[in-house]
Design a protein that fits this description.
single chain; alpha+beta; 22 helices
Length: 643
């Protein structure tokens, strides 16, 4: 029990016995456990989506034990225990299990998640869905609530290396595992009593339900039929299933099939004719598309350095430590602490020792900068205090320094948005001009109707983020640094953290207010939210550019899209390079052959295929388009390096 609030907790003990792990493995896994043992919403919202709350991971320094302190769910048991005690569930109960669990998975897969180390990840798979990782709490009126626990990201740390592990958890695997859980609940057991082998869901005789609609749905979850693309699509399909207890329509389907057999014969013949006519066109399209794809990825395919270890290391670098810097509130300081879907490590850890054979180490130490002195990272390099810097603020770089681009960053301008409050975004047509932005942020436009008479007669409330880097780039690109003698925004511009602005918009929308807020921020802080709509930007007489694309249709987003479905949109690289508010991120280092080439080597590391993949996964836009089959799977389809 927690003493301060008398709330129940559960303490789970994990073991790392030395007969299964060597000393280095024990220490490494303890460190990782303390960083990632537990999750919560990154924006600090208190929202119950039935994932057991984790309070604190503890690693005992002197023993082989670790502990995870979690919320205690009173009067609960695992589904495995429930099954052993109560036997099989009814079809109606299994539907409720699926509904609640899919709601939780939808939330887990799409929301920004924060770990104990304050590292942030945009959505994650559970990876360990089974009868023992789902808790059931039955109320007095026999209703029940389900809670998910035991996420794979920390559970798998305690599997001995000698036991083969499956590939890293994927969201689609959660749906397959949930389908198997539902199959077991309908059957009331997990083993075939005759053979003592696990029940086989492909064996129709082992299904214990007359609800064919539910059976087909579960088969689709498990991938026996066309799989669902997401937990959200699965939940929506579940809600559309005919209610449990309705008459099975399989006989009606058979009758319809018989009645249409004759029509099918003619349809097949007609289809053959159509296919013959279309065949040439399809072949032509595929050949053309193949040519376009090859052209689109020429730069990627020509990037011969695949991995960090492919970069040549100067002898001056071997065995040495190097310190580099950036803005404390800048983009690099944000993304470097994010976990990338490789080895459960942060970008900072992956880049600290990118080539173990060379034994060179890179340590990141950000410097404090402000609006009056935004070039402090570059100045630290020029003074020799740091070996190199990573920054977008290179306006005052002297000829003694070299700057090499490694990725793109940018600003997004957003207004309030959700399904019930999108009038401003809609009437703006999802876009805004640079000139309108200049007038808003210099106080010359103060009411939305000054832009469009169809907009509400409402005060414009301009906000800005608190990062000097973001404000500096906004003033450089949008305001053209004019007037130069006035570095501050007008008094009507509110400067605060992006997360605070997003929370304020969300709260005002919940209170049925049209906020009138407009703000901007760096892409890595805006992309993973859905309370603000990122506007396309119009530069002069050019067409509006919206770099955020809808994944399914490969088109730019519009105000009818559900931006809360975070897995369904992405930044189109070629479009982003033309986006008015885009700008490169540079590695800045000294032009001095007498010193070890730490900066130029680090820039080469970041521009390998491996480096570009990693940067794309933490919120930056790569220098070139990356093939979808690699980009969608965190570049895991790259062959492993020969170490």
């Amino acid at each position: 029990m927690q003493i301060k609030d008398k709330q129940p907790v559960e303490i789970k003990e994990y073991l790392l016995p030395n007969r299964c792990f060597n000393e280095q493995e024990i220490q490494q896994r303890k460190q990782i456990f303390q960083r990632i043992g537990g999750v919560k919403l990154a924006d600090s919202r208190i929202q119950n989506f039935r994932l057991v709350k984790t309070w604190e991971p503890i690693a005992d320094e002197n023993t082989e034990r670790c502990y995870l302190i979690t919320q205690g769910i009173e009067a609960s048991q695992t589904l495995g225990q429930y099954l052993a005690q109560k036997g099989k569930m009814t079809a109606s109960q299994v539907r409720d299990v699926l509904k609640q669990t899919l709601q939780t998975l939808e939330f887990l897969h799409s929301q920004k998640i924060s770990f104990p180390s304050n590292q942030v990840q945009e959505g994650m798979a559970h990876g360990n869905i089974n009868l023992d990782s789902i808790l059931i709490k039955v109320t007095k009126n026999q209703q029940f609530f389900l809670y998910l626990c035991d996420l794979a990201i920390w559970e798998n740390l305690f599997i001995p290396p000698a036991i083969p592990q499956s590939a890293p958890a994927q969201k689609e695997n959660d749906l397959e595992s949930l389908g198997l859980v539902a199959f077991y609940l309908l059957s009331g057991r997990t083993l075939d009593h005759g053979s003592n082998q696990p029940l086989n869901p492909r064996d129709t005789q082992q299904w214990s339900t007359t609800d064919n609609h539910l059976k087909q749905f579960i088969e689709q979850l498990m991938g026996f039929r066309t799989p669902f693309i997401s937990a959200e699509s699965a939940r929506q399909a579940l809600m559309k299933l005919p209610k449990d207890g309705q008459e099975d329509n399989s006989s009606q389907l058979a009758e319809n099939e018989t009645a249409t057999q004759g029509l099918k014969k003619w349809s097949i013949l007609l289809l053959i004719i159509i296919l013959l006519l279309m065949g040439g066109g399809i072949a032509y399209y595929l050949l053309l598309r193949k040519g376009n794809v090859s052209e689109n990825f020429d730069e990627w395919n020509g990037r011969m350095q695949h991995f960090f270890v492919d970069v040549n290391v100067d002898n001056k670098l071997r065995g040495n430590k190097f310190s580099y810097t950036g803005e404390q509130l800048g983009t690099w300081s944000l993304i470097i602490n994010q976990i990338v879907p490789i080895d459960n490590s942060t970008l900072k850890e992956l880049l600290a020792n990118p080539n173990p054979d060379a034994k060179m180490q890179f340590q990141y130490a950000p410097v404090i900068s402000n609006l009056e002195n935004t070039n402090e990272p570059v100045a630290a390099v020029e003074r020799g205090d740091k070996d190199f810097a990573i920054t977008s603020l290179t306006k005052n770089v002297s000829d003694k320094l070299e700057e090499k681009p490694v990725a793109y960053d940018g600003l997004l301008v957003y207004v309030e948005f959700n399904s019930g409050h999108s009038k401003i975004a809609n009437e703006l047509g999802g876009k805004i001009t640079l000139e309108q932005l200049r007038k808003i942020y210099t106080g010359k436009i103060t009411n939305w109707q000054q832009i469009n008479s169809n907009l509400p007669d409402l005060e414009i409330r301009p906000f800005a983020p608190d990062e000097p880097e973001a404000i500096s780039k906004f003033k450089e690109i949008v305001l053209k640094n004019h007037p130069e003698d006035n570095p501050s925004f007008p008094p009507n511009v509110t400067i605060q953290a992006t997360k605070t602005t997003q929370n304020q918009i969300r709260e005002e929308i919940l209170n049925s207010k049209v906020t009138g807020i407009i703000s901007f921020g760096i892409i890595s802080k805006i992309k993973g939210q859905c309370s603000g709509y990122p506007l396309a930007i119009v530069d002069g007489k050019k067409q509006a550019i919206q770099p955020l694309f809808q994944k399914r249709d490969r088109r730019s987003i519009n105000t009818s899209d559900d931006l809360c479905d975070h897995d369904n949109y992405f930044f189109d690289v070629k479009t982003f390079h033309q986006y008015p508010l885009a700008y490169p991120i540079f590695v800045v280092y000294r032009k001095d052959n007498r010193i070890p080439p730490a900066g130029s080597t680090f820039a080469e590391i970041l521009t390998t295929r491996q480096g570009q993949c990693l940067l794309s996964k933490v919120g930056l836009v790569p220098l070139q388009p990356i093939p979808d089959d690699i980009n969608n799977y965190a570049c895991k389809s790259l062959p492993k390096p020969n170490l």
